[in-house]
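Hi R.,

Here's the chain you asked about this morning:
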Amino acid sequence: MKRLLIVGILLLCMLASLYADETLGSEPIYSEVSTTPEPAMTEEPVVVEEPVVVEEPVVVEEPVVVEEPVVVEEPVVVEEPLSSLFTMVVPYKYHVLSIGGGTNGNVFEADITASPFAFTYVGALDIFYSMKSQGSRDMFEFTAFSTISADDLGITPMLLSVIGYKNYVTDLGTIPLFVKAVLPLNVSNTYFPYSGGGLRFTITGSPSVGIGVGRMYDITNVMYAKLYLEALGMDVKTSTVKAAVEVMGKRDQYTNRLRSNFDLNNVEYYSDLMEALGLEGRFLEYDAAIRYSQLFNFERAKFDFSRLMGLTHGWEVALSTVPSMIYMQDTTPSPVFTFNSLDTVLNGEYASLMFNQTLYFKLGTEHRLEYVPGGSPELNYEGAIMGEIRYIPHRSRWWIGSSGNVTYELDTGDFTYEFDVTAHYLVTPNFEVYIGADNYNSPADYRAYVGAELRLL
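And here is the predicted structure, written out as tokens:
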């Protein structure tokens, strides 16, 4: 019984122990029961974490290409066209002298008759001289043309000369205003030996004074400077051409200085010209490309001969008063002086060089109101239109020119015209031959001519 009681107590204790384990969890069971409560375990404070910020997805950038450093270029200087130099006013002075003749002037013609025997001949020689001097505000020009004819009876000279002066007194804005005076003289009907024991000749003079606007510029030196640069194989820059033209225009100032060694004048001139062309100290190169170059000399010669006929650019309009007088000395003892007419003349002209400096043209017009005392009628009007064109190709020995005019006269109501075409060829740089044809107021009447000209200056 006792054993059963003990066994029952043990079972109760085991059941109580199991119950305590379930209620107390994993706390250890102490064999002794303490009445003092155990201290509560202090828990560590909970650290409140900051909310996680959701970052935006990272954009993967493309790799940066390292560029080469930028080279800052200098501003490009735009060169003005060569034609912008045509209106340069540079002091200059030049002389042109040539001799020549053609079938027009009968250089030589002989007629022989067998029965009865007779020998007659006629010959003629043309002489042309021109001097032109330009300052910054004025211009002086002298031109003389003479034909000397000779035959079995004697010698007959003819002389035509023109002396002209212009002064550009002021500018009307950008337009020059000038005054001018011109004295043309024509000496004709002169015959040697004296006829009837006296000298025979006729002088016709038409002095004029006038006022006008505009200016005609000689452009020959601009073309010379361009040819220099082309012959030297250099770029034709407007700034270089301008510097060369300024030196070339002062050539007389260099070469006419009085000094013990005159050759130094030419040395200084060509030294400054070489510097302007960008060839300082390179005289051998200059000699080879210019002084001893046939190509350059022929190219320049075309403009030398063109200068005989004028090579200008610009425009002008002028109003002039032109009296006309005749002085005649015949075989009679007393000369005869006649006042022929008094004219009022309005004229204008325009000229330029275009198409890469190969085509030169000139246009002009003239309107003349003529008063003839005692004439019938006393008042008359005459109008004319003139034109000239020249084709001057590069790197050639030839060029071609043509000129013409149409005139209308009121008192007769007639139109008259004249034109010519002439081809020129350079045999040497200072000697040309030419052939051409002209027509005067008759569609069915043409005249052919040939001739030659030798330039001495």
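One quick note: The CA atoms of residues 319 and 346 lie 5 Å apart.

Cheers,
M.
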